[in-house]
Write a structure and sequence with these properties.
The chain is built from 17 helices and twelve strands. It has a seven-stranded mixed sheet, with helices on both faces. The protein has a three-stranded antiparallel sheet with strand order 7-8-9. The two termini are 28 Å apart.
Amino acid sequence: MYNLLNDLSIVEVSSFVASPTAGLYCAQLGAEVIRVDHKAGGLDYNRYMLTGEGRSLSWENLNRAKKSLALDLQSGEGRELLVALAASVGQCITNLPEKSFLSHAAMQARRADMVSLRVMGWHDGRQAMDFTVNAAVGYPLMGGPEDWDPVTAPPVNQVLPAWDFITGAYGAFAMLAALRHRDRTGEGSEVRLPLGDVAIGTMANAGLMAEVLYRGGDRERLGNAIWGAFGRDFRSRDGVRFMVAALTPKQWGGLVKAFGVEAGIAALEVEYGVRFADGDTPRFTHRSDLFALFQHAAEHADYAELESRMTAQGCTFERYRTAFEAANDRALVADNPLFGPAPANPSGFDYPATRSFANLPEREAGDPAPAPFLGQHSEEVLAEKLGLSSGAIGKLVDAGTVALSDKE
């Protein structure tokens, strides 16, 4: 953690991935993020996968470095406390519906300069989640082997909820932009961020929308090849699969030397009247012949030898790893300063935890912070942010409006 945002407090009322990610990134840069859940746990509190003790590893990692307040959000008194807390703090991240009790108008009625970020499904109010917006914007129908029949081929869903994480990152950015505007003008802001707009907007920003409209049709499936450039997976003599990419002249030249295919490249250049060193277009156009040439070379060497050659030539490549292998890879994790000492996780399971993705070389990053137990900071938050006495808090606990830590 860095303490760049240690003067900022944010109330977060959210579930699943996108909205908690926005709060997580702010917390990792020093903000005090107060996660508020229903006293029995929010919708994602028991999200798979659970440890033997029933703790969600997903919830634990999306809520690192945050504080936890547990309220009875089905009661009027609990909801009133939450609205009052959000207005007192002045900043709120949520994915509750706009027409819920935690509307921007309800918070703004208590604080004129309120800043709220609301993660939504679609811009018109329809519900959505990562995998459904992914289906809507076309990417799953571009995946799969290139010899699949385009009419009958099934979609290929990506296993990473990319739109959720992009939305979370954009949400943190939008929140800080709104706060900077308030610092300059004194004006609050309501920021609505539809997950679907992030997906279709990213498709447009990537140039894919312009491309398919220009060509009047969709891309063909390319298997594991990189669209518009030279790159694909190959398999060595000893059965190791690895990915290579060559987008620059240096990358291309190094790959040709590492694979020892100079003669074959020269023959193809004569046959087609091109120079593959000239850029992506000739390499992508004639990718099938190039892939066959490189794969033939890969089949005559073990991966260790190919790895040594590619490293010597400064190539861009990586061996395919399983997620379990990646988690145990020293270069990726144990020797990576991104990860710090395992904090005291509520699950009781010790495993690597991340610091901020951004590395500030002149600042001390600090160690990763643990996720809270549900309700761990209920008393602290209500006392510090709303000025409630211990007696008043005790009455709320006795009434079931507030819940304390579920550590036991």
